[in-house]
Amino acid sequence: MAGQTLYDKLWQDHLVKSREDGTALIYIDRHLIHEVTSPQAFEGLRLAGRKPWRKDSLVATPDHNVPSEASERAGGVAGIRDEVSRIQVQTLDENCRDFDVVQFGINEPGQGIVHVIGPETGATLPGMTVVCGDSHTSTHGALGALAHGIGTSEVEHVMATQCLIQKKMKNMLVRVDGVLGRGVTAKDVVLAIIGKIGTAGGTGYAIEFGGEVMRNMSMEGRMTVCNMAIEAGARAGMVAVDQITLDYVKDKPYAPKGADWDRAVAAWSQLHSDDDAEFDAVIELRGEEIEPQVSWGTSPEMVVAVSAQVPDPAAEADATKRAGVERALEYMGLTAGQKITDIKLDRVFIGSCTNSRIEDLRAAAAVAKGQKKADSVKQVLIVPGSQAVKAQAEKEGLDQIFIDAGFEWREPSCSMCLAMNADKLGAGEHCASTSNRNFEGRQGYGGRTHLVSPGMAAAAAIAGHFVDVREFATQLEIA
Amino acid sequence: MKAFTQHKGLAAPMDRANVDTDLIIPKQFLKSIKRTGFGPNLFDELRYLDEGQPGQDCSQRPLNPEFPLNFPRYQGASVLLARKNFGCGSSREHAPWALDDHGFRAIIAPSFADIFFNNCFKNGLLPIVLDEAIVDQLFEEMHAQEGYELTIDLEKQQVVKPNGETIDFEVDAFRKHCLLNGLDDIGLTLEDADDIRTYEAKRREQAPWLFDAVK
Ligand code: SF4
Hints:
Chain A is of the alpha/beta class. Chain A has 17 helices and 19 strands. In chain A, strands 5-4-3-6-7 form a five-stranded parallel β-sheet. Chain A has a five-stranded parallel β-sheet with strand order 17-16-15-18-19. In chain A, strands 11-10-9-12 form a four-stranded parallel β-sheet. The model of chain A has no long low-confidence stretch (mean pLDDT 95). The radius of gyration of chain B is 20 Å and the shape is globular. Chain B folds into two domains: 6-183, Alpha-Beta Barrel (Aconitase, domain 4); 184-214, no CATH class. By secondary structure, chain B is of the alpha/beta class. In chain B, strand 3, helix 4 (114-121) and strand 4 (126-129) form a beta-alpha-beta unit. Chain B starts with 5 loop residues before the first strand and ends in a 9-residue tail after the last helix. Chain B is built from eight helices and seven strands; from the N terminus they run βααβαβαβαβββααα. At the A-B interface, strand 2, helix 2, helix 4, helix 6 and strand 8 of A face helix 4, helix 6, helix 7 and helix 8 of B. Chain A: It catalyses: (2R,3S)-3-isopropylmalate = (2S)-2-isopropylmalate.
């Protein structure tokens, strides 16, 4: 019999019951909650007179609607100017109080984007099943966990039963071998993967990211890659546990301690695919072939290397695809054959659960140090992913580097990743963004998003148009 | 949950691939804490010429005359014909809520994004996967014939065309059962509460660090 994949093992470990019809009850260890997808679920519990099955599995924080601007933020929940946003955050407060759920409130030290605070606090750990009413829950798979996004009905279902009704997914291995060039980051790796397999390439699969590049990647980089598994269509992305994982998890506030730590490490050391495990699909990429990536269209698969040109729809054989490219070019205000480096930016956003961790901010600061944003760029937002990231960055003086460069240093929130708070693009504006979705209107009505790494975003902010961060770094004599 | 047995309704087109959930229901409407009332903002950015705001009276807004769902011939449609990878993007259940609130009961496409597909079943909305060639043909027939109605028979797992021709489709047995009977998943799962407790006790023994760490 063939060995098991990492996903097979995680599935097996959490299987409560298989049903005859092929569905299964899967036990959930950790359930993260935010204000947008939970109110209707709490309401459902209330109407049915139910209580959460296991309160200690729940951790909540507000992130999507909270203001990033310091003066507005200082007023706490009551200070949120947008009434509808305020009600939603207040509702989370009330629900957490009524159901006795641990919450990191709006200005408390543990607050942040739910996918940033999970790993950072040890609330999410290797070997766990993790769910959240948010598709980027795949992020936590970087720890060697089975993590996926669920809808609000499922949020209610997990709160009430501690289980999820699931059908086992297929196994996909995405192997990135070789080494990455200087200035090429986890974000470029995952964008290149999505460019290769498409936004539906991983539909129905759990993706394991492996190979030398992944093995050598930091935990935060692995989180960036797993975060965007959903942009490749896969609900879950994951990376095997190794020493890098253990070093990261050790001493996190909610991580096991003492004898429990030793037991946990022994259990976690099994969390990798067996050598003879079989995958339903294997995708291979070479690290040295990956260049810094820039998305040009309205889907994350519409992505090319920074040295390339905007594609020509005429080259598309498939009619639906051709129409898609044409529509995207029209929406984005780009012409076929235009050089990526000729695209001018109006705003730059560095943040989101994809790229708002300390390493991301360091990469952006390395480029911004001693520089000034281009006059033509109206605004550069730097939004740390959590209170802890913000504090660390301030300790390292990164905030001052950004402020000196004319960037704005903001409060932890989702911010312009989806523009539910006040941070938005204007119609027709181009934005270099470290977030994960370039859908029409995502960052503001009529806004035009280009997905890039933090270094590429900072370089674009200074140049006023896209530049290859590698050349830029050489000019600046920074490594 | 609303049961779905048989449904006959007017078909309408959403003729583009990779329709994402931001397009189905833009984020400014996700601020609602209710499950209902999203219908007027379904496909908001395509449907109207202005930028929609939550709580607005949509009947006063300028409609985009080029958007098919605004055409008189598609008013009252309840079966949506769509393209590949429909519903990709976020996990927001507001997307099926908006489709449902607008009056759609079924969506036919060559493929769906996983989370959206799953969310539909939880809300009495039936997503049907058919071969791309068949979907192409349905699009053609619908364009050619005003008032093109499809009947969807979940029990028989068939789509019936106006000329009586039938197309079979697959549906997961458990989901079919729940949808036909309008069953509440939670109630069903709680019938297995003893199994869950047994598993939990074992888990607590094997991995105690997963319990009571956060309080
Ligand atoms: S940062 Fe963006 S993608 Fe991540 S949880 Fe927030 S809104 Fe979603």
